[in-house]
Specification:
It is built from twelve helices and 13 strands. 48% of the residues are buried. It has 390 residues and is of the alpha+beta class. Helix 9 runs antiparallel to helix 10. The strands form three sheets. A six-stranded mixed beta sheet has the order 5-4-6-3-1-13, sandwiched between helices. Helix content is 44%, strand content 22%. Bound molecules: 2-deoxy-2-fluoro-alpha-D-galactopyranose (GAF). The site of 2-deoxy-2-fluoro-alpha-D-galactopyranose has 11 residues, from helix 5.
């Protein structure tokens, strides 16, 4: 990739005011818990989006997606969801920023922007959140908006809801913006308090295996899961009014309200809520394993999460199940599970360094034989969150 500043210069014939790098994310544990007021444990990674930006004064936004070879020009005012998906991640956050700033004065009068990156799209690594975070961070710097990282994450989340139509939680934007090198972030998705934990894997590494299945179902099924959880929560609250959020519920209450009368309440709602309650508990225990340095116990919980996502939450797919099942009995694989929204994308694995090549090769061969698809392997390092490029 040619440096983003040079790309900008080539396209717009002037030097950009600034450039920003914004990473994708992994999540060690805590899946589909962010929008259910649970906990998550993500980290920013060495796959990223870069943008370079410069001001305009004619009321237009000129957007260049370098990897796609596409340029779109739009007036900055009256922005609405666009037919081209990548444009929505960009103008979605511009819309949020204008709502917050341009009511006071007409501060932002247009800009030029170039985007490129190396986050595979549809792999569950949050390329869309990385675009949103890169753009909002760049606007914040360019116009000195004084937004905090948390404000930017919340605005990017709202952009995804309103322009991309996915009612996502906060995890992806939060992780992209707040990442720190070699640290995972424990985020309480109810209070938004967070803490960093060093990830010391010693002889082990984090590796992603990409099914190459693009999660086409993801946005519609994602929104359905969210709705099912809300319905389940309401049913539980009818019997237990003290319950405010999922975290207040224990497994007995799920059985009592939803498990005992599935014909009436719906088996799916029962399964979704059971998974969420168990996962919220599991993440808290996993963080204790992490601080105690007990990665074996941590890894077992990753496998348990996969089981729940596959059987109860039903967001896995045969290819993801195959990849997790294939490494489950391997003594050199501490933990593995599907990661992100689901229906395709990657599994996240913690694997002994000395065995990595062999395991990857054998798994790729088995995957090719079964699904006639190549398995793409990404060794991952944990990196700093969204920042200005020097
Ligand atoms: C997607 C969403 F964007 C996140 O908010 C989160 O819910 C995740 O799926 C599942 O944990 O990445």
């Amino acid at each position: 990739m040619l440096a983003i500043r040079s790309q900008f210069l080539n396209h717009f014939n002037y030097v950009p005011s600034l450039a920003v790098k914004s990473p994708g994310r992994i999540n060690l544990i805590g899946e589909h818990t962010d929008y259910n007021h649970g906990f998550v444990l993500p980290a920013a990674i060495d796959k990223y989006i870069e943008v370079a930006i410069g001001k305009r004064t004619d009321g237009a936004i000129h957007m260049v997606a370098l990897d796609l070879g596409q340029t779109i020009i739009l007036p900055i005012h009256h922005l609405a969801p666009h037919a081209t998906p990548w444009v929505n991640y960009l103008i979605g956050v511009v819309h949020q920023v204008l709502e917050k700033t341009n009511t006071k004065d007409d501060l932002i009068k247009g800009f030029d922007i170039c985007i490129q990156g190396n986050i595979p799209s549809g792999a569950g690594l949050s390329s869309s959140a990385a675009v949103e975070c890169a753009v909002i961070f760049a606007l914040n710097e360019l116009y000195q908006l004084q937004l905090t990282k948390m404000e930017m994450a919340l605005m990017a989340q709202k952009a995804e809801h309103e322009f991309a139509g996915v009612k996502c939680g906060l995890m992806d934007m939060f992780a992209s913006l707040h990442g720190q090198k070699n640290k995972v972030i424990f985020l309480d998705c109810a209070s938004l308090a967070y803490a960093y934990y060093p990830l010391e894997l010693k002889d082990y590494s984090i590796v992603l295996f990409d099914t190459q299945i693009k999660h086409a179902l993801a946005s519609s099924e994602y929104n359905t899961r969210r709705l099912e959880c809300e319905q389940g929560l309401k049913m539980i609250q009818e019997k237990y009014p003290a319950v405010k959020i999922f975290r207040d519920i224990n497994t007995e209450q799920v059985e009592d309200c939803l498990g005992s009368n599935k014909a009436l309440t719906g088996v799916k709602i029962y399964q979704r809520c059971k998974y969420v309650v168990e996962e919220i508990e599991r993440v808290q225990l996993a963080v204790k394993d992490l601080t105690a340095g007990d990665m074996q116990a941590f890894g077992k919980k990753m496998f348990a999460t996969h089981e729940g996502l596959s059987k109860l939450y039903e967001v896995s797919c045969p290819e993801l199940d195959f990849l997790v099942e294939a490494v489950k009995q391997n003594e050199h694989v501490i933990g593995a599970r599907m990661m992100g929204g689901g229906f395709g994308g990657c599994t996240i694995n913690i694997i002994k360094n000395s065995e990595l090549d062999l395991i990857s090769k054998e798994l790729a061969a088995a995957y090719l034989k079964k699904y006639q698809k190549p398995l793409v392997v990404y060794p991952i390092s944990i990196e700093e969150g969204t920042h200005l490029l020097a």
